[in-house]
Amino acid sequence: MAKSKAKDQLYAAIANQKLAFARQALSTAAAQDDETINGRLARHAHLDAAILELCSGVSYFVAEVAEQYGLSVEPGLRSPVELLEMFAGSGRQNAAVAELHSLRKRPDSWFADLLETAANPLSLVQRFKAEDSFAAVGAPAEGGAMIPVLDVTHSAANAPDLSPVELVSGWARAAQELVDRQRAALHEE
Questions:
Q1: Residues 19 and 54 sit within 8 Å (Cβ to Cβ)
Q2: How far apart are the C-alpha atoms of 64 and 47, rounded to whole Å?
Q3: Residue 139 counted as domain residue
Q4: CB count in 10 Å sphere of residue 92
Q5: Nearest to residue 166, comparing CAs of 120, 115, 113, 116?
Q6: What is the pTM of this model?
């Protein structure tokens, strides 16, 4: 049991670290200059990093909970969905894991959005009007010609009210709140 306790504490520490990395990447993304090509590229790179760190953080969080229930997992080798399915297949019940299962099935939830965006990075670009997304960025080639960029964005009428950084920041807050609730409930037991 001591080995499992040490492992769930390790996964908790890594989950905390991954969520902190996501917040830092979002902070850096928000600070980028939208007036320059390099600023837009950097913002998009940091958004991508935040999304990957969030997915990884959720994976380590589910691994942490699974270890608390005596289930052995290697989260670095599994997606959040695979870990949730493994946990559900064990017959064990946990409120946070049940919440993630529920959120995964709701297409309008932060978790479904996060998973969709991690699996299909263009899905984030497609939500925003061209001036808010990487799709509007080109780079000068030799001789000053612009590299043509495929516009995969929806019209401004379909764009959400939030910027990409604000949207992903909302996902990060929701993930952190879920982790905090689970850990608070664990300490109350």
A1: yes
A2: 25
A3: no
A4: 14
A5: 113
A6: 0.79
